[in-house]
Amino acid sequence: RGGGVLALLVAVYVLLWISRGMSHLARMFVSRQREYRADAIAARLTRDPLSLAEALYAIGYRWRGSGLTAEELESIFIVNPAYCAIDEEAGLFADLFSTHPPLKERLQVLLEMAHTDMERVSKDVEHENNRPRTPAPGIESAMPNPQWMVHRNGAWEGPFDAARIPTLGGMRPEIWVQRLGAADIKMAYEDPDLMNAVNNRDEKAGTCHCPRCNIPLSPVIYEGVETNQCHFCHGILASPNDVERIIIRQEVGFPERITQLAAKIAEEEKIWREGTIKRDPDTMLTCPKCRPQTRKMLRMFYTAAYHVEIDKCLYCGSIWFDKDELEVLQCLIERQTKQK
Q1: Whole-prediction pTM value?
Q2: Is 328 in contact with 264 (CB distance < 8 Å)?
Q3: Residue 192, helix vs strand vs coil
Q4: Whole-angstrom Cα distance, residue 171 to residue 276?
Q5: Which among 217, 243, 244 is positioned nearest to 231, based on CA atoms?
Q6: 219 has which bridge partners?
Q7: Angle of helix 49-60 relative to helix 103-114, nearest 10 degrees?
Q8: Within 13 Å of residue 59, how many CA atoms lie on the same side as its CB?
Q9: How many CB atoms are closer than 10 A to CB 216?
Q10: Residues 6 or more apart from 49 whose CB is under 8 A from it?
Q11: How far are the Cα atoms of 114, 145, 180, 294 from residue 159, in angstroms, in the given order?
Q12: 245 with 225: CB under 8 angstroms?
């Protein structure tokens, strides 16, 4: 039995040795010139040979991945993962046993395309290496008050801290943000630090969540009545009694934008009294108060006389006003009251 196991081990070793030899033999047929062609095609496609040279320099003169899985497949990599002196030589012997041309020669070709020299590349790479680095996850950042850049209206603005971001106009969880010191760009809801800061900015934040942004609503005093508001989309949740109390009070004026919206709705009511709303079950909001039961809110007009669209829960009576809807309703009622 012992002899059979030994023979099996020897056979496995021989097979591995033969496969390794075949691998080396196959690599002998891989031309070193293909890397030059690949560099030329990349320069033609990107029209930026300097950046390609900097990337090749940074890869070639750092740890390349030696010791990792599939290291023996060096022929498919930009440079050989394991440093080998023969790769930097020229001649017949190097052409037979190396799959990559000398790195300096590849850099020289790219530098000639970019009309620059090696000193410029080395300085640029060194400058990039000395830039401030982002702290590793789980380690307290040296920056006590993190800040973010926000992409709004087609341009980057900021930096802003977490307390300032929700007050910006047009902010939604789907807006693009970038934390200072970080390289990646993500949507606001994908940044846990930002969302935690926004959700905890008000210690009295309630258990109700915004039906659109899915973040806790915070209590705010509106026209002397306590309502729940979303800091992102600025929607408001209120009960029917609170809405009536808000409408009765006429303490706050309205900007020109709200006045124009109310006037437009009033004109449409004169032309078409029987307004309708197209309801899509897939877009119906979940009631923030009845959320455990996932009850949906019905999209409807506030009344037949005032065609301001709202979302109302038929179970608890809560009303959700998207941004400007409550102000437009107030302005419309006050406008028609004065006309009478």
Answers
A1: 0.43
A2: no
A3: helix
A4: 30
A5: 217
A6: 228
A7: 160
A8: 17
A9: 20
A10: 43, 110, 111, 113, 114
A11: 35, 11, 8, 38
A12: yes
Handedness of CA 65, 67, 70, 76 (dihedral sign): positive
Strands 218-222 and 186-187: unpaired
- Distance CA(90)–CA(161), nearest Å, equals 56
Give the whole-angstrom CA distance, residue 115 versus residue 127: 20
Query: How far apart, in whole angstroms, are the C-alpha atoms of residue 229 and residue 171?
Result: 14
- H or E segment to which residue 64 belongs: none
Phi/psi of residue 55, nearest 5 degrees: -65, -45
pLDDT digits (tens, 9 = 90+) for 172-212: 667 788 888 777 788 877 777 777 666 555 444 457 888 88
Q: Three-class SS of residue 130?
A: coil
Chain segment 128-185, per-residue pLDDT in tens: 666 554 443 443 444 457 788 888 777 788 788 776 776 676 666 677 888 887 777 8
Assigned token pair, 223: 């026209």
Strand-pairing partners, residue 178, are: 149
Q: Is the dihedral of CA 120, 121, 122, 125 positive or negative?
A: positive
Strand order in the sheet with 147-152: 155-161, 147-152, 176-179, 186-187
| Element spanning 155, H or E | strand 155-161
C-beta of residue 181 within 8 angstroms of C-beta of residue 131: no
Q: pLDDT by residue (tens digit) across 200-246?
A: 554 444 578 888 877 788 888 887 788 888 877 788 999 988 888 88
